[in-house]
Amino acid sequence: MDYNEYVKYLRDCSGRGINLGLERISELMEKLGNPQNKTKIIHVAGTNGKGSFCAMLSAILKSAGYKTGNFSSPALTGITDYFRIDCTEISEKDFTEIMDIVYPVCESMADKPTEFEILTAVAFELFARKKCDIAIVECGMGGDTDSTNIITAPLLSVVTNVRKDHTAILGKTIDEIATHKAGIIKPDCPVFFGDADMPEIIEKTAREKNSELFTLDWSDILFNYPESVYTLSGTHFTYKGMKINLSLLGTYQLSNAVNVLNCIEILKNNGLEIPYSAIKSGFADVKWSGRFEILRKNPLVIFDGSHNPDGVENLSHTLEQCFSKQKVVIIIGVMADKDYTCYADILREHTEIVFTVTPDNPRSLDCQTLAGSFSDNGIPAYACNDLETGIKSAYSYAKENNLPLIAMGSLYMYRDFTNALDRIL
After folding, report:
1. pLDDT digits 0-9 by tens, 32-74
2. Residue 308: which domain range?
């Protein structure tokens, strides 16, 4: 099959839904010769910040001279966006060649794998065939039963944080969710937890598996720049006396950067050579779409994939830092399983008006219900029947009133939003 036929095949496979468990992926990887065991892996779980963390760490390892693979989700622009080699999205040709290997094995199985399981298999086969020195692999959901969790001896396991999300699948409490994420901790392999509030199950699991546990350490991070730490040109701080200019925007990116720096020290202590010059250049060069990303100027248009309460709180902090003296226009679309009813309270001080849309996804929340959650809390909100109408309305209002436009919500909306923005403008 060609590239487009494989894209259609995966779209058809998505109809199998989310079916967590390791039975199918284990069978699939066994039939492929277990390529996941042929590359050194850094395995990353967590509620928020995983993608940015992986992008930063990939950029630094690349700068240090390592051939680096990265598997992160969701894909924003197309199927190939799941996979990167040395921070560059793979080609359609590369994807097709790997699918030529993976596809017949999938079809030979009695219990056919899900879309994400197939993508996971493609990632591991890709990294092995490209002879990556290190691959950074992000969990799709949870940890213990996520298809990426067939890794047996990671170079490092990372849990960025634990917040409430995917509660219908992972559980309604922090402890329940943390239990799933603790499942990526492997015997005798180091693990890093990147948040101040560590659930007891993380420590307990590390102890039981004799895995050295490292925790968040801010001691080498200083805010001694004369200008603001957070600006619309990047994030600025000092690390061990070295001035760092992080290209990614958003106040939350500093926490992600600190997690990366903590993990760099762990990796160095375990034999990796990562000079400080690579840290500096990696942070300066890193690119990651959809996270407080500036898409247009005059008026300013920013896309931020904040889609759960913790993410929206982080967006609120960023808006406070960047636009403390003016309000913004918001266009938003989210999935129905998100706790969207709290968004109005979180964003109340920052937004003048909200336009809601329904992302093109079967799990989306309808725009009328989302608009009602804002208007019922005293924030003017208008439901738009399609994305282009929403963008035109929000953009016109922002331009007429000289206000920034913030597109936020599901990352599944990113491609459609940017494409529509290009057509309209």
Report:
1. 999 999 999 999 999 889 999 999 999 999 999 999 999 999 8
2. 293-424
